[in-house]
Amino acid sequence: MGSLKIENVKKSFGPVDVLKGIDLDVKDGEFVVFVGPSGCGKSTLLRIIAGLEDATSGNVLIDDARVTNAPPSKRGIAMVFQTYALYPHLTVRDNMALGLKQAGTPTAEIDKRIAASSAMLSLEPYLKRRPAELSGGQRQRVAIGRALVREPKLFLFDEPLSNLDAALRVNTRLEIAQLHNRLKATMVYVTHDQVEAMTLADRIVVLNAGRIEQVGAPMELYNKPANLFVAGFIGSPK
Ligand code: ADP
Ligand code: MG
Q1: Counts of helices then strands in the chain (DSSP H, E)
Q2: Which residues form the ABC transporter domain (predicted)?
């Protein structure tokens, strides 16, 4: 289970209205990608879903339970950031284990989950290393592994490929797609890259200046963009 409902979410920073009323239903197991230009509010929306930021008004529901005021650890989510957000002084293994330890997960269960996740992401050779001893691609796989071991209902990705070079970007994208196929987990993924959106998404949500311009399957947006903004962004030739 891992459905997500966003009801009329608004967010202002001081006088600036960053999100101007977002409504969205994400089905259990769906891969939804938020696209839009830099500064349109993608990260803010993701952080509100994660509980890292409070909405000014509106509600967030996960599996039909209102989590608007619940702390991140109580939402059954795991987030992967553009900058990996690993602890530099901890080994890969300890980075992956930390959240589970804090949640009181028994050691045997932690070991089992780390073994499974590191196999899935080919991380076994790196478990004893520290982040500084890894490449960018390896660091991002560790960050994905850390999300995986928590067995979240809902994965949130904020531009996870932006700091990787072109070849690694393709590989990591394929790994994320595979992960989605294997786990059947709900994934909400933010990017400003049209190719990522077109290849990963069941549905794409096009954001512009704090509003949703259009929601639909990739080919739906490509063939029938609701307006010029969507057409320009998704790259339809009309
Ligand atoms: P995106 O991820 O789409 O690039 P963001 O959600 O990061 O956009 O930011 C949307 C807007 O909100 C930007 O104008 C940004 O400057 C502003 N913003 C984001 N976080 C804060 C904050 N903590 N305080 C003030 N303004 C913020
Ligand atoms: Mg952002």
Answers
A1: 8, 10
A2: 4-234
Nearest in space to 173 (alpha carbons), one of 184, 160, 185, 182: 160
Average pLDDT over residues 18-37: 97
Beta carbon of 43 within 6 Å of any ligand 1 atom: yes
The ipTM of this complex is 0.98
Q: pLDDT, tens digit, for every residue of 86-126?
A: 999 999 999 999 999 998 999 999 999 999 999 999 999 99
Q: How far apart are CA 38 and CA 144, in angstroms?
A: 23
CA dihedral 115, 116, 117, 123 (to 10 degrees): 50
236 has a pLDDT exceeding 80? no
The reply to whether ligand 1 has any atom less than 6 angstroms from the CB of 42 is yes
One-character DSSP codes across 73-124:
GGTTEEEE-TT----TTS-HHHHHHHHHHHTT--HHHHHHHHHHHHHHTT-G
CA 135, CA 50: separation in Å to the nearest integer?
27
25 CA → ligand 1 middle, Å: 23
CA distance 97 to 114: 7
Average pLDDT over residues 75-81: 93
Q: Is 43 helix (H, G, I), strand (E, B) or coil?
A: helix
- Partners of 66 in the β-ladder: 61
Which residues, in sequence order, are bridge partners of residue 187? Answer: 31, 155
Burial-class residue 124 by CB neighbours within 10 Å (0-12, 13-18, 19+). Answer: exposed
pLDDT at 60: 97
Among protein residues, the one with the nearest Cα to ligand 1's atom 25 is: 13
